[in-house]
Design goal:
Elements (H helix, E strand, L loop, with lengths): L2 E2 L1 H13 L7 E8 L5 E8 L7 E5 L2 E5 L1 H7 L3 E7 L2 E7 L5 E2 L5 E3 L1
Parallel strand pairs: 1-6, 2-5
Antiparallel strand pairs: 2-3, 3-9, 4-5, 6-7, 8-9
């Protein structure tokens, strides 16, 4: 399971509407090879489930993770911060042994 903060849930709901996502769309969280630390996070909206996807719900937002990615992000908290120095999603991953300066890639 991953945790999604109230700020992240609010932003995801806004983005679902702004991007005119169809009814039943959800947030797909993936881990892929790449980035300066070895792995990077990828967030997308999707509406099609795979049979082996893991599903979670947080304040009405459905979050889906494929079985390979969940091994790297189990227990992670997804947050959203916005301010004068920029805005974006923040990944607090207890499985990461190091992260890059921007926080979008990690190593295990």
């Amino acid at each position: 399971m991953i945790n999604v903060s109230e700020n992240a849930v609010s932003k995801i709901k806004v983005l679902l509407q702004e991007e005119n996502q169809p009814e039943g769309s959800f947030l797909r969280v993936k881990v892929k090879r790449g980035g300066c630390s070895g792995f990077s996070y990828k967030l997308d909206f999707d509406s099609e489930l795979n049979s082996d996807d893991k599903e979670f719900s947080s304040d009405g937002i459905k979050v889906v993770i494929d079985p390979k990615s969940i091994l790297y992000i189990l227990g992670m908290t997804l947050d959203y911060e916005g301010g004068l120095n920029g805005a974006g999603f923040i990944f607090s991953n207890p499985n990461a042994s190091k992260t890059c300066g921007c926080g979008s890639s990690f190593a295990v």
